């Protein structure tokens, strides 16, 4: 099914407050909108007369084999979308042959998500309660077989999400953050109070070094939008960087990933894996990101709508649809392997 139709189905199913929480951004939502449109600020320069009868999309992300250069971004509170929550997304991603990043704010514990699906998983870290508890989560993730630690650094405080404030959105009854200590106070269950508990205002580059040393999982820093920051993350011990505006949910108006990506690839050089997310909705968006030097892209909202509309199958279908669109766009552009996307395949519109 077309991704837009899946989105429509999800919107029809979800309560208004939940839909707005998932769909919304911060402040005037400039970055939210530009995340989608900025991929189209690039134009493809297709090559003809190449043999594209077979197109290969398989790759590795920090050594983990995946069927496509498209992974599932971490997103919070998935049982609000579907009763299976993160377990459903994990099964859907595995069925599509790719990896899922599980958020600290998951509503299914990271051990239970691991049990639900043997597919490859990364663990996304925020601060929970205190440093000791947070460190313990990192250890739990490694024990449960997660393959990388994704440190999200763009949430020193929660951005101002006006839709949630207007809706006075509360965590629905029965929805709990499963990786949080039992009975951690959530104030009035107002979403902003609940999520405020995970903010990382004290984190600095020294924490990148500390977490890299704490675990044998490779460390990815997510939320980087500048070349100098990307280089400092690597110097501090990160293995890879993930270009992201948090789906337009933190700084607004922040530079969109499609515009920031070339500077970051340039700063870190060709040997470091760089990922990008934000507004990736079409095969051409993925191919543009690869031409700009990304190893892979991640998608958030398309998988939210997939889970809400159809559970694990819905997530699988969204991912396979995007992969099919990438495959066709590659073939039409004379590219037969995701590792062989020339930089001159794109030009600024
Ligand atoms: C509802 C929602 C919740 C999110 N929760 C998290 C989170 O818990 N941790 C995190 O690192 N990023 C989180 N993100 C950001 C996503 O990982 C990702 O950067 C973003 O969704 C990509 O943009 P897209 O939704 O346009 O694909 C969230 C995004 C959304 C939409």
CATH evolutionary superfamily: Aldolase class I
CATH architectural group: Alpha-Beta Barrel
Question: Can you tell me the overall shape?
Answer: globular
- Number of DSSP strands? 12
Features:
349 residues, alpha/beta, TIM Barrel, eight-stranded parallel beta sheet, two-stranded antiparallel sheet, 12 strands, globular, binds flavin mononucleotide
Secondary-structure map:
Elements: H1 3-13, H2 16-23, H3 30-37, E1 42-44, E2 59-61, E3 64-66, E4 70-72, H4 85-96, E5 100-103, H5 110-116, E6 121-125, H6 131-143, E7 149-152, H7 162-167, H8 191-196, H9 205-214, E8 219-224, H10 227-235, E9 240-243, H11 257-268, E10 273-277, H12 283-291, E11 296-299, H13 301-332, E12 346-348
Parallel strand pairs: 4-11, 5-6, 6-7, 7-8, 8-9, 9-10, 10-11
Antiparallel strand pairs: 1-12, 2-3
Bound molecules: flavin mononucleotide (FMN).
Flavin mononucleotide (FMN) is lined by residues 22, 35, 73-76, 103, 105, 124, 152, 222, 244, 246-247, 249, 277-280, 299-301.
Quick overview of this protein structure:
The protein has 349 residues and is of the alpha/beta class.
Tell me what you see in this structure.
- This protein has 349 residues and is an alpha/beta fold.
- It has a single domain, classed as TIM Barrel (Alpha-Beta Barrel), CATH 3.20.20.70.
- The chain has 13 helices and 12 strands.
- The strands form 3 sheets. It has an 8-stranded parallel β-sheet with strand order 4-11-10-9-8-7-6-5.
- Helix 10 (227-235) packs across helix 11 and helix 12 (283-291) packs across helix 13 (301-332).
- The two termini are 29 Å apart.
- The model has no long low-confidence stretch (mean pLDDT 96).
- The structure holds flavin mononucleotide.
- Flavin mononucleotide (FMN) binds at residues 22, 35, 73-76, 103, 105, 124, 152, 222, 244, 246-247, 249, 277-280, 299-301.
């Amino acid at each position: 099914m077309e991704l837009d139709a899946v989105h429509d189905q999800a919107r029809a199913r979800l309560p208004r407050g939940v839909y707005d929480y998932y769909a919304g951004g911060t402040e005037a939502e400039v970055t939210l909108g530009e995340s989608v449109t900025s991929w189209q600020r690039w134009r493809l320069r297709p090559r003809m007369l190449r043999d594209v009868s077979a197109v290969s999309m398989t790759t590795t992300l920090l050594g983990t084999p995946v069927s496509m250069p498209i992974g599932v971004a971490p997103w919070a509170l998935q049982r609000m979308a579907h009763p299976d929550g993160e377990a459903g997304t994990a099964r859907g991603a595995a069925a599509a042959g790719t990896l899922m990043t599980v958020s600290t704010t998951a509503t299914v514990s990271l051990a239970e998500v691991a049990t639900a699906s043997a597919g490859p998983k990364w663990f996304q870290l925020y601060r929970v309660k205190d440093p000791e508890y947070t460190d313990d989560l990192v250890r739990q993730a490694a024990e449960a077989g997660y393959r990388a630690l994704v440190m999200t650094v763009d949430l020193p405080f929660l951005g101002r999400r006006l839709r949630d404030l207007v809706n006075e959105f509360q965590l629905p009854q029965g929805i709990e953050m499963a990786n949080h200590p039992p009975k951690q106070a959530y104030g009035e269950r107002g979403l902003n109070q609940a999520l405020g508990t995970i903010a990382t205002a004290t984190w600095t580059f020294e924490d990148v070094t500390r977490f890299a040393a704490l675990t044998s999982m490779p460390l990815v820093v997510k939320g980087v939008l500048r070349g100098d920051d990307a280089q400092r993350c690597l110097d501090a011990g990160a293995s890879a960087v993930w270009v992201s505006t948090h789906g337009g949910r933190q700084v607004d108006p922040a530079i969109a990933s499609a515009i920031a990506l070339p500077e970051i690839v340039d700063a870190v050089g060709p040997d470091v894996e760089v990922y990008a997310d934000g507004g990736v909705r079409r095969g051409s968006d993925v191919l543009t990101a690869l031409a700009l030097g990304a190893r892979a892209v991640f998608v958030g909202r398309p998988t939210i709508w997939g889970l809400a509309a159809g559970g694990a199958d819905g997530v699988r279908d969204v991912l396979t649809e995007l992969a099919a669109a990438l495959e066709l766009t590659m073939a039409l552009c004379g590219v037969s392997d995701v590792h062989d996307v020339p930089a001159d395949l794109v030009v600024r519109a």
